[in-house]
Amino acid sequence: MAKIETKCTRSGYTPKNGEPRSLPIYQSTTWKYEKSDDMGALFDLEAEGYFYTRLQNPTNDYVAAKLADLEGGVAAMLTSSGQAANFFAIFNICEAGDHFLASANIYGGTYNLFGTTLKKMGIECTFYDQTMSDDELQKLVRPNTKCVFGETITNPTVMVFDIERMAAFAHRNGIPLIMDNTFATPVNCRPFEWGCDIVTHSTTKYIDGHASTVGGAIVDSGNFDWMAHKEKFPGLCTPDESYHGITYATKFGKGAYITKATVQMMRDLGAIQSPQHAFFINIGLESLHVRMERHCANALKIAEFLKNHEQVDWVHYPSLEGDEYNELAKKYLPNGSCGVLCFAVKGGREKSIQFMDSLKLATIATHVADAQTCLLHPASHTHRQLSEEQLIEAGVAPDLIRYSVGLENADDLIADLQQAFETIK
Ligand SMILES: *Cc1c(COP(=O)(O)O)cnc(C)c1O
Question: In percent, how much of the chain has pLDDT > 70?
Answer without folding.
Answer: 100
